[in-house]
Amino acid sequence: MVEKAIGFIETDSIAAGIEAADAAVKTASIELLEARSICPGKFMVLFRGDTSQVNNALRAGVQIAGGAVVDTLFLPNAHPAIFAALDLSSEVTNGAALGIIETVTAASCIVASDAAAKAANVNLLELRLANGLGGKSFLLMEGKVSDVEASVAAGVVRPTEDGLLVRKTVITQLAAQVREKIV
Predict the structure, then answer these.
(1) CA distances in angstroms from 79 to 5, 37, 43, 63, 124, listed in the order given
(2) What is the mean pLDDT of residues 63-84?
(3) Distance CA 108, CA 99 (A)
């Protein structure tokens, strides 16, 4: 499977979210990355695969969930680093700077992550989607200070335009004790 695209569906109903996940998987050849409840009482479905397959799965999931759909995302040509950050399988490199982007929604954080990864040479450490965060999401990235600054700047453009940015920051020389606890 060529993993070029990401599809995302958020519903305000657990039942509708599970139906959407089922329809997506039965309709197209995709890999289901997440299908779970998120705060506050919503459900998210996240999947990847070939662009056309993800598009077909997204349409099927949205159709079956109907009015319960809160948000969707279709991200073709997703940067491969997003998948490692979702899996927490990125190798920590102890970069000179840590960049953080925090958003109101999971979909906006995925978009921010893609833009950040494509803007400069950074290591996406973690992409946390609404799990135990009251529906918010965040991205942690590391690298050279100038690269992290460029990536954070690029990553916050869309969430800022959409009114979905909570906060952004770049921390240089993160304290070792803090690094041990968050990475």
Answers:
(1) 9, 25, 24, 27, 10
(2) 94
(3) 16
For 169, list phi and psi in degrees, rounded to 5: -160, 155
**Residue 109 domain boundaries:** 81-182
Question: Are 99 and 125 found together in one domain?
Answer: yes
Closest CA to 78 of 29, 118, 45: 118
For residues 145 and 7, what is the distance between their CA atoms, to the nearest angstrom? 31
Q: What is the token pair recorded at 90?
A: 């990125």
Same domain flag for 95 and 143: yes
Q: Of 15, 43, 75, which one is at a domain's C-terminal end?
A: 75
Beta strands in 42-91 (DSSP E): 42-49, 69-75
For residues 1-5, give the mean pLDDT.
69
Residue whose C-alpha is closest to residue 23's, from 13, 35, 12, 5: 35
CA distance 80 to 125: 13
The model's pLDDT over 109-150, given as tens digits with 9 standing for 90+, comes to 999 999 999 999 999 999 999 877 778 999 999 999 999 999
Minimum mean pLDDT range among 36-40, 109-113, 161-165: 36-40
Token pair for 88: 């927490």
| CATH code assigned at 114 | 3.30.70.1710
pLDDT more than 70, % of the chain: 97
Pick the last residue of a domain from 60, 75, 90. 75
Sheet-wide strand order for 31-38: 31-38, 42-49, 5-11, 69-75
